[in-house]
Design a protein that fits this description.
Elements lengths: L2 E6 L4 E7 L31 E9 L5 E7 L10 E10 L2 E10 L2 E12 L2 E11 L15 E11 L4 E10 L16 H4 L9 E12 L2 E10 L5 E12 L2 E11 L3 E3 L5 E3 L9 E8 L2
C-alpha cells in the first residue's frame, strides 16, 4: 500500500511511488474522490489503498497550495492512468479547492468548499464529468455527461454530542427502482467510481461520547428515490492505551428483489437488497 520517496525542494515537495491520493470534504459521499474511493459501507477505513504516482505539492503562501500529479495505470496502456491539477485556497476563512482530473479518457471538473456558518461547519463538494471527452474515437451519440453534488453541515451540540447531515445528488442514477438494473454497465459505474443507484439521498450521523473511553456512532442513508434506508450503528471501546475493541452493523431496509415471469431479477429498492451485516474488530497499535 505504501512505498514512495519524498524529494523536498525549496519550491515544492515531490512524491514518487505508491501513495494515497484522496480528496473531498464530504462525510458520506465524496464526488471528487474517485482514484481510490471508500464506499460508505467499508468496514476498515483507516488506510486507503495506494496508487503508483508522481505528485508535486507546491505551496502558494501560508495556506494555499497547488497539487499536480500523474497516476500510472495498466502497463503499456493509458486506460487506467490519470492526471490531475488541483488548487487549494483559503478565502474569507473558508477552504476552496478547484480541480481538473483526467481518467480513463474522461474529464472531471471539481469544486470543494469547506467553511462555517453560525457555529456549524458547512461543506459543498461537486464534480462534473465530461464522458469520454478525451477519446476522439468514442461515438458522440453515446457520450453522456453527468454530475454529482454533496451538500452538508455538522455541529457540536456539546462536548459529548456531535452530529452531521448531508444531501447527495447523483445525476447518473435511476429516477425509479426499475431503472437500476442496467446502470451497472454504464460508464459512470464502470469507470467513474459511482455505486449508488438512485438520484437523491439524505444522510445523517452522530457521535455520542458515552464515556471517555467509549464513543457510540451511527449514521443513516435514505434513498429518496425509492424510499429504502440503510442504518449503521457502531461502538468502540479503548481497552487500554493503543488497544481497541469495536462492534458495528449495517441494516438495509426496503423492498427486496422481484422475479419476473421470464425468470429475471428486478430491484424494487436499493438498500432493501443489501445484506444484513454485523462485524467486530480488535486493533493493537505499536
Amino acid at each position: 500500500d505504501r512505498f514512495f520517496a519524498t524529494l523536498s525542494f525549496s519550491f515544492a515537495d515531490v512524491y514518487i511511488g505508491r501513495q494515497v491520493i484522496s480528496w473531498g470534504s464530504s462525510y458520506v459521499i465524496n464526488p471528487t474522490d474517485i482514484i481510490s474511493p471508500f464506499n460508505f459501507n467499508e468496514i476498515d477505513k483507516e488506510e486507503k489503498s495506494g496508487v503508483d504516482a508522481v505528485r508535486a505539492r507546491i505551496p502558494l503562501g501560508t495556506m494555499n497550495e497547488l497539487d499536480a500529479g500523474y497516476v500510472f495505470g495498466d502497463p503499456g496502456g493509458s486506460d487506467g492512468s490519470a492526471f490531475f491539477l488541483r488548487g487549494k485556497f483559503n478565502i474569507l476563512r473558508s477552504d476552496i479547492s478547484l480541480m481538473i482530473l483526467g481518467f480513463r479518457r474522461n474529464l472531471l471538473l471539481g469544486f470543494d468548499l469547506s467553511g462555517s456558518l453560525g457555529g456549524a461547519g458547512v461543506r459543498l463538494e461537486a464534480a462534473y464529468i465530461f464522458d469520454k471527452a478525451m477519446d476522439s474515437g468514442y461515438p458522440e451519440e453515446l457520450q453522456k455527461d453527468y454530475y454529482r453534488i454533496s451538500l452538508g453541515a455538522d455541529y457540536n451540540f456539546s462536548d459529548s454530542l456531535y452530529a452531521y447531515i448531508e444531501y447527495h445528488l447523483n445525476s447518473p442514477g435511476g429516477g425509479e427502482a426499475d431503472d437500476y438494473a442496467g446502470l451497472s454497465v454504464t460508464n459512470p459505474y464502470t469507470e467513474g467510481s459511482v455505486y449508488l443507484m438512485g438520484k437523491h439521498y439524505l444522510s445523517a450521523g452522530m457521535t455520542w461520547q458515552l464515556h471517555p473511553l467509549l464513543p457510540v456512532n451511527g449514521f443513516v442513508i435514505y434513498n429518496i428515490t425509492d424510499g429504502s434506508v440503510i442504518f449503521s450503528p457502531s461502538a468502540e471501546y479503548n481497552i487500554k492505551e493503543d488497544i481497541y475493541l469495536s462492534l458495528g452493523a449495517f441494516f438495509g431496509m426496503g423492498k427486496g428483489v422481484v422475479i419476473s415471469e421470464t425468470g429475471t431479477l428486478g430491484m424494487r429498492s436499493e438498500f432493501g437488497t443489501y445484506p444484513q451485516m454485523i462485524y467486530t474488530s480488535f486493533r493493537i497499535y505499536f
